[in-house]
Amino acid sequence: MDRVTLDVKGVHVTVSAEDVMRLLLDRMRGSSTEQVRPTGVPRIGTAWPEQGGEYAGIVRGHDGGPDYHLILAEQTLAPGPWTDALAWAKSLVVGRFSDYSLPLRKEQAVMFGNVPERFEKDWYWSSEEHSNTAYAWCQNFTNGTQDDTHKTNTSRARAVRRVPIQ
Length: 166
Fold this sequence. Notes:
The protein is of the alpha+beta class. Helix content is 20%, strand content 37%.
C-alpha cells in the first residue's frame, strides 16, 4: 500500500495514500470522515509492545519541549512508601526499555481521563514532591482527585515512559 508522509508544523504524519484521497474527496464534497491515524501509533488504551507498554495518550511537552506519547507499563507496585515507588519505577526494565519513572501529576490526569480502567480504584504515587518535601503528590483513580500525602504513607505505583513526538 502506498504511503504519504506529511510535515505539519514539524510533526511527521504517515498515512495511506488511499486515506489522503478519501479525505480530499470528502472535503470537496463537504462531508466528514473518520480521523486518519498515524502509522504505528495504536489506539489509546491498547498495547504498544514496540514501546514497552500500553498507549495512554499524548502529553504536552515541558517548558516548550516536544509533546510526547505516554506509555504505561503493565506492572503495578503494591502499596508502599514513596521512596520505594521511585526506586521501583527507576529499576523497571521491560523488553529493551529501562527509562521508566513514576508519572508527573499532569500525566496521571491524562491517564485518569484516558485509561482509568487500567488502575485499581486507589491512590497512586506521582514523581512530584510537594513544596513541603516530607510530602509527595498522589492521584486517586476512584474519582480523579489529586492530593499530597506524607512520603511514608502507602500508595500504589505504575511506571511510565515518554516517547517524544518528532
